[in-house]
Structure formats: C-alpha cells, structure tokens
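ok here's Thiol:disulfide interchange protein, seq below lol
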Amino acid sequence: MKQFVMAASLLTLLACTGQGEAQSSQNTQKAEAQEAANSADFNRSYLQQMGFAIESVEPSSVAGVYEVITDQGLIYVADNGKKLIGGRIYDITGSEPVNLSEQAIRSMRQRDIAAVAEQAITYRAEDEKYVVTVFTDPTCGYCRQLHNNLDNYLQKGITIRYLAWPRSGLQGSAYQQLKAVWCAADPQAAMTAAKSDQRLQAASCDDPVDEHFALGNKFGVRGTPAMVLPSGELIPGLVDASRLLTMLKQG
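and the structure came out like this:
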C-alpha cells in the first residue's frame, strides 16, 4: 500500500511537471504568435483586397490560426494571411463544447458598444440594474411595440439605449427619419413621434446613423429590434420585459 501511495504521488508530480512544461510551451508559442500578429510582416493584403477593413489581429487558441476583427465581424486566417477559414472554434475538452468564437464576438460587441454609448438615445431606469442596447427602426412594428411598452422595461430596472439601424439601408424614409431623430433638439421626444407616425421636422447635423448601421452589420444584425445584452450577446427580435429580465439575471 505504501509503495502504491508513493507511486501515485510520483505520477501526480510527473503530471504536474508535464502540465507546467506544456503550459510554458503554449505561453511561448502564444507570445511568438502575438509578436507575429503585431508585426509589419503579417500579410494583411489578401484580406484587404477582399474588402475587409482590419481592426485587430490576435493569435487564436489554435496554433497558426489568427483571430481577425474586421468591419464585417470576426474571421480566422492562417498561413500568414493567405488562407481564410470559415466557421467557429469550439473547445471540446470539457463536459460540453464551449464556443470560443462567440466569446470573442461578445467581447468585440462590448468594446464597440462602449465606444458609441454617448451617441445613443437613452431611456434610463430610475433603479437601473441592467443596460440593454437596441438597434431600432421607427418603421418597424416590433420596434414600435417595444417603445410603447418602454415603461415595463424601465420599471424592471432595465435601461434601454437605442442605436439606429434603418432596415432599408442608407436610403429611404426610415433612414431620413432616424437622421431627423438624432438631430432633433429633443431626441427622446422625436423618437416617440417617429414611432407614432408623426411628421418630424427635417434637421441636419453630424449624425451617427451611418456609423450605427455599419456597427449593426458588423455585429450580425439582420433585422430590428436587435438587442445587445451587457454580456455582448445579440438577441434578434422583440423580447418582452419579463422574459428579458429573466435572461439578464441568468447572465
């Protein structure tokens, strides 16, 4: 029995040592990959000629594969930018697969939302517990339904922060209405008026509608309303206040 315990202890020690060496090797590889990603030698030309605007390049969790944030979202490349990889990366070592790509995408959304927070039209809950960012279009029926029930969200401690996403693109009535809303002296009142079919006075300013629309496309927005939770998760469609609160509590 004593020999068995000693043998088991030795195996544990060897396992810890091996794991430490493996971890050290992984850290070295990651550092080298990070250096390559940040280097001027990293070839961005192939992605750029495909129309991608590159925002950042980081080593992914897979050796030789890079995680690239672009104006069109997250993509993966290998072979020094010469190979574009479709799909998502999952860690399957645990009891359930973990979507590592979704984690990266959520982090991207959180950073980008923080950068435009001051541009949003915000309806703040008195007892604020959560802030949900909503891409909206005044011509969208479900967006109007959300807005008509805004008090339900606010009473539950959910602040609603609107960004613009005209469904018809950068043209048409919704686009013009959103520009007028953001340029109005009272954007909150103008948003309510636009969603009630009231005529808005034309206004011109350095509005952020184009920027918001591009951001929504980058996030994967395909329709309105589209909700971005504090976690960075994107929820397409209308979610009522009670169900949304449950989702927020679950994290």
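fwiw Residues 1-30 have pLDDT under 50 and may be disordered. kinda neat tbh
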